[in-house]
């Protein structure tokens, strides 16, 4: 009887490790790309909210469950706000999904970032980074998503 319990426990541990490794492989094949902001609204005197869609592409054969997203938005090394997503969504295999994050920022944060915006306009490239945590399958994973926007030359 004890030998059967040991075999059963070992089989459960092996199955659990297999599932965790499969989810890890699926997360490593997940790519996140932010889209263009939309649905701007002003709340109160200083707060600005807008929707920032993030396109998630799962290039693996496993489904991923995204539980939450909590990202800081950095523009030219200046923190201008926070993007969050707090509902559960499945990312199906071999396909894109859209995560609708809500960005919260303020006029004062945007005003403090004006020198960075000016440098980006001068260099014709605006560097944006989304840094934070992603809850995937109950595990929190640190993410860093760099985005560069090529800007037209202003004359």
Sequence-ordered SSE layout with sheet pairings:
Blueprint: H1 2-28, E1 30-34, E2 38-43, E3 47-58, E4 64-75, E5 78-85, E6 89-91, E7 95-106, H2 107-112, H3 114-123, E8 125-136, E9 139-150
Antiparallel strand pairs: 1-3, 2-3, 3-7, 4-5, 4-6, 4-8, 5-7, 8-9
Q: How would you describe the shape?
A: elongated
At CATH's second level, what is the architecture? Sandwich
Q: Biggest sheet, open or closed, and with what strands and sense?
A: 9 strands, antiparallel
Q: Return Rg in Å.
A: 20 Å
What is the fourth-level CATH superfamily?
Answer: Immunoglobulins
Low-pLDDT runs of 5+ residues are none
CATH fold assignment? Immunoglobulin-like
- What fraction, in percent, of the residue positions are helical? 25-40%
Which descriptors would you attach to this protein?
elongated; 3 helices; 155 residues; 9 strands; Immunoglobulin-like
Q: Explain this structure to me?
A:
Strands 1, 2, 3, 4, 5, 6, 7, 8 and 9 form a 9-stranded antiparallel sheet that branches. The longest helix is centred in the N-terminal third of the chain and has 27 residues, at 2-28. The model has no long low-confidence stretch (mean pLDDT 81). The protein is elongated, with a radius of gyration of 20 Å. The chain has 3 helices and 9 strands; from the N terminus they run H-E-E-E-E-E-E-E-H-H-E-E. A hairpin with a 2-residue loop joins strand 4 and strand 5. It has one domain (2-150): Immunoglobulins (Immunoglobulin-like). The protein has helices at 2-28, 107-112, 114-123; strands spanning 30-34, 38-43, 47-58, 64-75, 78-85, 89-91, 95-106, 125-136, 139-150. 15% of the residues are buried. It is α+β, with helices and mostly antiparallel strands and 155 residues long.
């Amino acid at each position: 009887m004890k030998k059967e319990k040991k075999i059963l426990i070992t089989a459960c541990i092996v199955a659990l490790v297999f599932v965790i490794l499969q989810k890890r492989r699926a997360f490593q094949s997940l790519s996140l790309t932010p889209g263009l902001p939309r649905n701007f609204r002003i709340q109160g005197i200083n707060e600005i909210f807008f929707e920032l869609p993030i396109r998630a592409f799962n290039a693996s054969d496993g489904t991923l469950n995204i539980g939450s997203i909590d990202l800081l938005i950095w523009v030219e090394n200046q923190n201008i706000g926070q993007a969050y997503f707090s509902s559960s969504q499945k990312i199906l295999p071999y396909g894109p999904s859209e995560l609708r994050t809500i960005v919260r920022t303020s006029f004062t944060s945007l005003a403090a970032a004006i020198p960075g915006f000016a440098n980006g306009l001068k260099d014709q490239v605006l560097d944006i980074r989304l840094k934070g945590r992603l809850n995937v399958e109950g595990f929190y994973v640190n993410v860093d998503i760099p985005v560069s926007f090529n800007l037209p030359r202003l004359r």
